[in-house]
Amino acid sequence: MRTNDLIGALAADVKPGLPPGRALAFAVAAGALAAAILFSLVLGPRPDIAHAVATIRFDFKFVLTLSLAASAALLALRLARPEAQAGKTILLIVPAMLAIAIVLELVNVPAQDWLARWIGHNSRACMINIPFLSLIPLFAILAAMRLGATTRPALSGAVAGLLAAGIGASFYAAHCPDDSPLFVATWYTIATSFVTGLGALLGSRFLRW
Amino acid sequence: MTGANRLTAVARETEWSAWMRAALSGDEAAYRALLEALAPALRSLARSGLARAGAGNADAEDVVQEILLAIHLKRRTWMSDQPFMPWLNAIARHKLIDALRKKGRRGEVPIDDLADVLPDTSEAPDASHAELTRLVGRLDGKSHAVVRAISLDGASVRETAVKLGMSEGAVRVALHRGLRKLATLTREAAA
What we know:
The complex is a heterodimer.
Chain A: H1 3-12, H2 20-43, H3 49-52, H4 56-79, H5 93-108, H6 111-119, H7 123-145, H8 153-175, H9 181-206
Chain B: H1 3-24, H2 28-52, H3 60-73, H4 84-102, H5 131-136, H6 141-152, H7 157-164, H8 168-190
Helix pairs in contact in B: 1-2, 2-3, 3-4, 3-8, 6-8, 7-8
């Protein structure tokens, strides 16, 4: 094939398609909707949610999970552009918030209660349900990111995983009876790292171009 | 960079970004002008890159075509309020490194900046860049017929629609699918 023949074919394919940012927004919306449906079918909010929303520890879980989703989304948008610097420092925001919350918790809670708050009631449910709620968002986000042009497929896949886990955990937090930052920092983090690892694995395979 | 080169770089940025902006809003003529201007610059880049890696430059035209295909399929990732050249360089570099890897060359090979390279208008004879032709043969059904007609036979979308008894819309869809599949096939060939 002569290069000019190829150029003729490329020029005839005139529609440029969806911008990666809009595709990502659609994927996040669709993924969140799917997670919402699964959440209401399988888990549902905890029974005392009306009381829980008035407590700062409960509300702070959402600050964390939504901040995780937002910072991952911003990084994903940058990674879609081949020439942009990744700017990974944005991912330190959530760990920093969590570290401050842990210090405040340790200062305000007597030492004999630390263990109970750390172990919580249901760490296994947390580690199962967050990945469960994150799976469809992860697939949707990866599909959208295939429209991007990342030069770092595994990193981009991991960031897709963080974003999906942020969505999944935002729903799970409304079901989960454990609100201590000690619990969240441990079990939510483990659950998130499953999803992130899966994202990295899939990304290194499906985000190449 | 010499003064003359700096002038070229600025002129290229201005002209190429304007063409790409027009192309993204559906201007086929501007898009064709852009791709025709890019090809000679990419050819220089590919030849010098392959030569520096000690890979010979017999397949340079295949690399040029793979880069053009990537530019095409990823053009939406250029933000039209950002400079065009860094985006173009990033795409070209990514595909050139891929091509070098395909030949088993790893490690750092200095790659030229497209703002500076002198255009190389000497396309090698057909026989030396048969890669895409071979891969078009691996497309199936309508995509195969459409991509063949429009690229190898140089037919227009309308002529292809009439010839194959399809609507123009269906031809465009099959063309887009075929080009995406071609890009996937070049990557698999690389693995």
